[in-house]
Amino acid sequence: MSLQVFLQAQLLGAENFLAAHSSIPLDGTKDLAGRCAWLSLICEVLPRALLAELKLSRMLLGSSSAEQFLLVLPEEEIPQANEFLNRTAKEISDLSDDALRLVWASTENLGAWPIARKRLDDALVAKIDAPLSASSGPEAFFSPLENAPEPKAGHYFETFADRMPSASAVGWSPESPAQLLWDEGQYRWTLKDQSGVDDETILFPRRFAMNDAGSHLASLGELSARAEGACRWGILRGDIDHFNVRLRQANSIEEHIHLSVLFKEFFAGELSLLCALPEFWRKVTVLYRGGDDFAVLGTWDALILLARELHRLFEKFVEHNLQLASGVEGKTLTMALAIAPDIDAPASAVLEEAGTLLRGAKAVEAGGFHLFGWTLEWKRLADAETLKTDLVRLVRDFGYGPDYIHDLSSIYRETFSSRATRRNKPVRVDKPWRTYMRLMRVLPEARNRETKNLINTVTTSLVGRSTTAYKLRPSSRVGLDWARLAAGH
Questions:
Q1: Which of 17, 64, 124, 391 has the fewest CB atoms within 10 Å, measured from its CB?
Q2: Contact (CB, 8 A) for 104 and 22
């Protein structure tokens, strides 16, 4: 009986790949959607294609998701696997204009899984730290300006996005190992939106905001027009905090695979269900689903509600599946929303901004939601929504001008210390009576008892219940910006 070998591969450079945009004058959103779909699928397809080429059982597939996969192979098949991956890595580099790099490592299935996992990690780090290892010649030593070929992807990602909504299977052929195909190819795998898949199928949630005719993805202009209030769109990104640490704590390969599949199925299944609901289906497009992260494009208002609902479901998921697991790793979810500065802003640039905001929020404190320039604890989002609802009611139900919402923002002094912001604690204004007077000058005059009660509620939401030391809270600032957009500003 031959010795078993673990083979793990990673795809590096995803951020640069998604931040790039086609130089061809086509729909940039379509290019981004194609890149995201390809990135979501490539590390699902490659391990299955490798097993098919080697004529090995699909049961040897350990885990697979966007940007990485793990296989168990017989020792004698490693040379052929290396040849397959070398050829594929070169094609991926060409297709992505050198933005992506496929690296892999293998180790014998000897000793406990934590020991084998450490050997794999050490070998992968060595590969990652050797950037010229994948170079095929001396051209790697020339600067990009001296050796800058025309983009090789051409129309590939736009075409890939065009056929994505109606495809039932993804295919692969050895002639072009980096190019995935819809409903054709030497090997094909059926696509499913939710869990319950097997080795013959691939989990791939597809939820798109289509145009009114239902023939193509809605343009950014069409999407923005569906927002309530201001015609704006944005991109929401989320990431499980310290998920790799949780994986490294696995005591067996079975536990590692179980965790990988569990979280992958959560994102795929819940995004599919949520985005099919009436309040989301025409406003949200799923761009990307990884093993522990996701990206969604949509109207700004729908994305806030989607984030809130997804976090609620994630808390239930963790409570059910990780209740007995020690530590906080993998038990919190951080999200960030980037709203496009204008309707025609490049989608790739907004995606990049959302990634930057997400990394900043995770660096401050894991498990928060960054929106409108502030990172809130999830429990404070309800406070912001309550304030938003009350402010908008004054405009829609009682006929007050929406300008007062913008004026309220001016009472905020940007004096929040990093420590206070991080802990979501307010900073006391030196002279609270001045804050109160400024509020009274900006808030509209009550016309009857109902509006008086509502204005009093707004005041309490803004500064708290204390009458001796008014405080301006981050959640209130978020509520103001939320209301301003909801009122159409």
A1: 124
A2: no
| Residue that terminates a domain, selected from 116, 132, 155 | 155
pTM of the predicted protein model? 0.86
Residue closest to 226 by CA, chosen among 298, 332, 312, 148: 298
Residue 488 has what pLDDT? Answer: 78
- When divided into structural domains, the chain yields a total of 3
Tens-place pLDDT, residues 250-278 = 999 999 999 999 999 999 889 989 999 99
Structure tokens at 70: 């793990």
Q: Which has more pLDDT, 413 or 489?
A: 489
| CA-closest candidate to residue 172, choices 184, 154, 190 | 184
Q: Does residue 73 sit in the same domain as residue 220?
A: no
Q: What is the pLDDT of residues 333-364, one digit of tens each?
A: 999 999 999 998 999 999 999 999 999 999 98
Phi, psi angles (nearest 5°) of residue 141 = -90, -5
**Domain assignment of residue 45, yes or no:** yes
Q: Which amino acid is at 473?
A: R
Q: Give the contacts of 30 (CB within 8 A, at least 6 positions apart).
A: 157, 158, 161, 162, 217
Q: Does 26 share its domain with 148? A: yes
Please tell me the distance from the alpha carbon of residue 452 to that of residue 449, in angstroms, as a whole number. Answer: 5
Q: CB neighbours (10 Å) of residue 241?
A: 19
Helix or strand run (H / E) with residue 306: helix 300-321
Q: Give the residue ranges of DSSP H helices in 335-431.
A: 347-364, 378-396, 403-409, 418-422
Residues 349 and 385 in one domain: no
Token digits of residue 463 = 């500064």
How far is Cα of residue 385 from the mean position of the Cα atoms in its chain? Answer: 23
Q: What is the DSSP string of 247-261?
A: HHT-SSHHHHHHHHH
Beta bridge partners of residue 299, listed in sequence order: 233
Range of the domain at 151: 1-155
Q: What are the tens digits of pLDDT across the range 84-129?
A: 999 999 999 999 999 999 999 999 999 899 999 999 999 999 988 8
